[in-house]
């Protein structure tokens, strides 16, 4: 682990960092928006912050599958976007949509040398984004009904759909307000975060 | 304007001969659509028919019914029935589509293709040629039945069922006095009131500072900023009560003499507004929007004697411990830092503790007066928790969820309790018993969030400043006269022993 700091960022290392960020980011969203009961979350130290991750084994397993798959696709640079869709269980209406755009520098696959960027700098950037996600609770509208979440991944067109995955629609919100959050970059992958929520119909 | 839309809606609902907006299309409509898959979606639900018509024209290149179709899984009811046990995992629309679509491909001209592509990009937000959307099937179990989203409960709280425990003392539920505070800035990060040991309450209203003499009730305007755009961001009395430190939005820290009502010093060392101040005998510490804390020695010309860089965002809470050994700071970056009073080996100040557990800005910071090294901190809207720490071991002694933004915490020696000031939804003050962390009382009355709390020099009254432009004085720590006498006797006994030994 110590060696990593001096080695710089490789494609594989970058894929791991970004997949890890998604895992913690999704956990934070599930906790902050109250999709699952707060008692089912536990605190861990990561990025110099105290973050909440789920203790529910099914959910943790599900998220693990996604993280592992993301790592692979990030390494191959074929994933473009990860979306967390929060919809009401009864009406099926999409209430909130967290969109993480991924820009991949495809030349990283070709050159063999690692890129120059310290782990600490990347950690600081990731920390800012996660803090912003936590702070969004101050302006996002209340989720009135019990909600469920869905994860959508935008990949390249010619990717073979792996087992357990199926094609889906984008699940946009009909009348939405969008807020752009901070972005972070590992010099190989750049992640832009944005949250869209349903505009209140009654002003 | 909305009332006309509402009327139109009502009329629409009451009329019985208009077409049903969301009904599945009739067979003749579907056939018409498929033979002419142009971009003419019904505007009621633009996404569904457009997707269908698009995908039906795309199927010739792939095996019919498989990967060309776009699924929109919109689960309806969580509950099920005998025929369909779990509606939310069924893909009704997909099934319907597969059953009803025709297999023959439609001929299209190149322009139609362009049009469709444009529509697709418009609707999907990206070029579908370039990417596809995947969804992991087998959704994890949803939250258990009966789980009501916690946030809804706490953010829509109107009246809490009162704490049923009977207090052993009477705490008046109405404030003693209500003072007018017009133009007070409704900014969570500022510290606009402070009460001196000489019983003067200093209040910063936008660009002026007023002093209210609690004993006589008279009001003096101490100062007003020359520049109209500059406002006061913090006030703090020196322990003796004869000097007042004032932090401004123009990054200045001013020192005023109350007797002469004159400015003694104007110390500039920050580059952003000074939101918080704290005294430790002759050292004045100031926290700024940049996240830096400066120590000023007010006796010497070169006042800026140290810089503490531990926060990356605005410092909103700053308190020296009562013995002057530690300085606690809370920031908008959700961190709490505890600094020593002397520099470390390298000549740099480094925090002895950093607490990251709060999930929101930490403005409420207060040291326990009767227990060494015990610190209370409270988080903002995203966090809502009060935490008690031992700064030597770094352990969090207790946590309690206050269900509301915490702006300030004050300890009371009289009853071994502490009071916290809150915002949405009840804008109340809560008195907690320490260390059991049970609620002793809730003081309501403010109609907007509380911004700051400060305590009178005799420890009986708490003043709260709120965004509703009032200051309320609550006499919540009134000492029982019998207990008071006992306390005084204990104090006087101590002094006589000292006198004896000196002789």
TrEMBL record, chain A:
<keyword id="KW-0539">Nucleus</keyword>
<dbReference type="GO" id="GO:1990728">
    <property type="term" value="C:mitotic spindle assembly checkpoint MAD1-MAD2 complex"/>
</dbReference>
<dbReference type="InterPro" id="IPR045091">
    <property type="entry name" value="Mad2-like"/>
</dbReference>
<dbReference type="GO" id="GO:0007094">
    <property type="term" value="P:mitotic spindle assembly checkpoint signaling"/>
</dbReference>
<keyword id="KW-0498">Mitosis</keyword>
<dbReference type="GO" id="GO:0051301">
    <property type="term" value="P:cell division"/>
</dbReference>
<dbReference type="GO" id="GO:0000776">
    <property type="term" value="C:kinetochore"/>
</dbReference>
<dbReference type="GO" id="GO:0005654">
    <property type="term" value="C:nucleoplasm"/>
</dbReference>
<feature type="domain" description="HORMA">
    <location>
        <begin position="12"/>
        <end position="195"/>
    </location>
</feature>
<comment type="similarity">
    <text>Belongs to the MAD2 family.</text>
</comment>
<keyword id="KW-0132">Cell division</keyword>
<protein>
    <recommendedName>
        <fullName>Mitotic spindle assembly checkpoint protein MAD2A</fullName>
    </recommendedName>
</protein>
<dbReference type="Pfam" id="PF02301">
    <property type="entry name" value="HORMA"/>
</dbReference>
<dbReference type="InterPro" id="IPR003511">
    <property type="entry name" value="HORMA_dom"/>
</dbReference>
<keyword id="KW-0131">Cell cycle</keyword>
<dbReference type="InterPro" id="IPR036570">
    <property type="entry name" value="HORMA_dom_sf"/>
</dbReference>
UniProtKB/TrEMBL annotation, chain B:
<keyword id="KW-0677">Repeat</keyword>
<keyword id="KW-0131">Cell cycle</keyword>
<dbReference type="GO" id="GO:0005680">
    <property type="term" value="C:anaphase-promoting complex"/>
</dbReference>
<dbReference type="GO" id="GO:0051301">
    <property type="term" value="P:cell division"/>
</dbReference>
<feature type="region of interest" description="Disordered">
    <location>
        <begin position="15"/>
        <end position="84"/>
    </location>
</feature>
<protein>
    <recommendedName>
        <fullName>Cell division cycle protein 20 homolog</fullName>
    </recommendedName>
</protein>
<feature type="repeat" description="WD">
    <location>
        <begin position="308"/>
        <end position="339"/>
    </location>
</feature>
<dbReference type="InterPro" id="IPR001680">
    <property type="entry name" value="WD40_rpt"/>
</dbReference>
<dbReference type="InterPro" id="IPR015943">
    <property type="entry name" value="WD40/YVTN_repeat-like_dom_sf"/>
</dbReference>
<dbReference type="GO" id="GO:1905786">
    <property type="term" value="P:positive regulation of anaphase-promoting complex-dependent catabolic process"/>
</dbReference>
<dbReference type="InterPro" id="IPR033010">
    <property type="entry name" value="Cdc20/Fizzy"/>
</dbReference>
<keyword id="KW-0833">Ubl conjugation pathway</keyword>
<keyword id="KW-0853">WD repeat</keyword>
<dbReference type="InterPro" id="IPR056150">
    <property type="entry name" value="WD40_CDC20-Fz"/>
</dbReference>
<feature type="repeat" description="WD">
    <location>
        <begin position="443"/>
        <end position="474"/>
    </location>
</feature>
<dbReference type="Pfam" id="PF24807">
    <property type="entry name" value="WD40_CDC20-Fz"/>
</dbReference>
<dbReference type="GO" id="GO:0010997">
    <property type="term" value="F:anaphase-promoting complex binding"/>
</dbReference>
<comment type="subunit">
    <text>Component of a complex with CDC20, CDC27, SPATC1 and TUBG1. Interacts with NEUROD2. Interacts with dimeric MAD2L1 in its closed conformation form. Interacts with BUB1B. The phosphorylated form interacts with APC/C. Interacts with NINL. May interact with MAD2L2. Interacts with CDK5RAP2. Interacts with SIRT2. Interacts with isoform 1 of NEK2. Interacts with HSF1 (via phosphorylated form); this interaction occurs in mitosis in a MAD2L1-dependent manner and prevents PLK1-stimulated degradation of HSF1 by blocking the recruitment of the SCF(BTRC) ubiquitin ligase complex.</text>
</comment>
<comment type="similarity">
    <text>Belongs to the WD repeat CDC20/Fizzy family.</text>
</comment>
<dbReference type="GO" id="GO:1990757">
    <property type="term" value="F:ubiquitin ligase activator activity"/>
</dbReference>
<dbReference type="GO" id="GO:0031145">
    <property type="term" value="P:anaphase-promoting complex-dependent catabolic process"/>
</dbReference>
<feature type="compositionally biased region" description="Low complexity">
    <location>
        <begin position="55"/>
        <end position="70"/>
    </location>
</feature>
């Amino acid at each position: 682990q110590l060696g990593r700091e001096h080695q710089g960022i490789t494609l594989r290392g970058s894929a791991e960092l970004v997949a890890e960020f998604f895992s913690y980011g999704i956990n934070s969203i599930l906790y902050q928006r109250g999709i699952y009961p707060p008692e089912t979350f536990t605190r861990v130290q990561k990025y110099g912050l105290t973050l909440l991750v789920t203790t529910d084994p099914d959910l943790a397993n599900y998220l693990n599958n996604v993280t592992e798959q993301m790592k692979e696709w990030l390494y191959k640079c074929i994933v473009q976007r990860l979306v967390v869709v929060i919809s009401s269980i009864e009406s099926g209406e999409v209430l909130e949509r967290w969109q993480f755009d991924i820009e991949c520098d495809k030349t990283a696959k070709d050159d063999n040398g690692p890129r120059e960027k310290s782990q600490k700098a990347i950690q600081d950037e990731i920390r800012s984004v996660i803090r912003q996600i936590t702070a969004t609770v101050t302006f996002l509208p209340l989720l009135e009904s019990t909600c469920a979440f869905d994860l959508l991944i935008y990949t390249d067109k010619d990717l073979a759909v792996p087992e357990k995955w199926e094609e889906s629609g984008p699940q946009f919100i009909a009348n939405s307000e969008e807020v752009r959050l901070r972005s972070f970059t590992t010099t190989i992958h750049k992640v832009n975060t944005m949250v869209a929520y349903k505009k209140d119909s009654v002003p | 304007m909305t009332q006309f839309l509402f009327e139109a809606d009502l009329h629409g609902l009451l009329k019985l001969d208009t077409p049903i907006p969301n009904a599945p299309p009739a067979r003749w409509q579907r056939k018409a659509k498929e033979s002419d898959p142009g971009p003419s979606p019904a505007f009621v639900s633009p996404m569904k028919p457009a997707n269908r018509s698009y995908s039906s024209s795309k199927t010739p290149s792939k095996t019919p019914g498989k990967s060309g179709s776009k699924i929109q899984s919109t689960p309806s009811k969580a509950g099920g029935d005998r025929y369909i046990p779990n509606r939310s995992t069924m893909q009704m629309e997909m099934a319907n589509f597969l059953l009803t679509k025709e297999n023959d491909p439609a001929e299209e001209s190149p322009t139609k293709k362009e049009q469709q592509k444009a529509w697709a990009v418009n609707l999907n937000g990206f070029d579908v040629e370039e990417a596809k959307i995947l969804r992991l099937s087998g959704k994890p179990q949803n939250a258990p039945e009966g789980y009501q989203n916690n946030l809804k409960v706490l953010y829509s709280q109107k009246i809490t069922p009162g704490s049923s425990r009977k207090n052993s003392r009477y705490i008046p539920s109405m404030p003693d006095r209500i003072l007018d505070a017009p133009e007070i800035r409704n900014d969570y990060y500022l510290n606009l009131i402070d009460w001196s040991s000489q019983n003067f309450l200093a209040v910063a209203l936008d660009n002026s500072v007023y002093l209210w003499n609690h004993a006589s009730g008279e009001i003096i305007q101490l100062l007003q900023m020359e520049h109209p755009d500059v406002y006061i961001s913090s006030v703090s009395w020196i322990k003796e009560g004869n000097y007042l430190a004032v932090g401004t939005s123009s990054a200045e820290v001013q020192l005023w003499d109350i007797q002469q009502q004159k400015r003694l010093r104007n110390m500039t060392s920050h580059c952003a507004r000074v939101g918080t101040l704290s005294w430790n005998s002759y050292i004045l510490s100031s926290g700024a929007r940049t996240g830096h804390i400066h120590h000023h020695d007010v006796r010497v010309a070169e006042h800026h004697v140290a810089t503490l860089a531990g926060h990356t965002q605005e410092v909103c809470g700053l308190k020296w411990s009562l013995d002057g050994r530690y300085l606690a700071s809370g920031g908008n970056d959700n961190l709490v830092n505890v600094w020593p009073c002397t520099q470390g080996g390298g000549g740099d100040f480094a925090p002895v503790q950093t607490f990251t557990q709060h999930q929101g800005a930490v403005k409420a910071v207060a040291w326990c007066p009767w227990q060494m090294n015990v610190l209370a901190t409270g988080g903002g809207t995203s966090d809502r928790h009060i935490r008690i720490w031992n700064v030597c071991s770094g352990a969090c002694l207790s946590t309690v969820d206050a269900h509301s933004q915490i702006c300030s915490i004050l300890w009371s020696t009289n009853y071994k309790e502490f009071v916290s000031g809150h915002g949405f939804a009840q804008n109340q003050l809560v008195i907690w018993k320490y260390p059991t962390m049970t609620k002793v009382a809730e003081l309501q009355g403010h109609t907007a969030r509380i911004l700051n709390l400060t305590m009178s020099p005799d420890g009986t009254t708490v003043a709260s400043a709120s965004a509703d432009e009032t200051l309320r004085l609550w006499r919540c720590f009134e000492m029982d006269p019998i207990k008071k006498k006992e306390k005084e006797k204990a104090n006087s006994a101590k002094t006589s022993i000292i006198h004896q030994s000196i002789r």
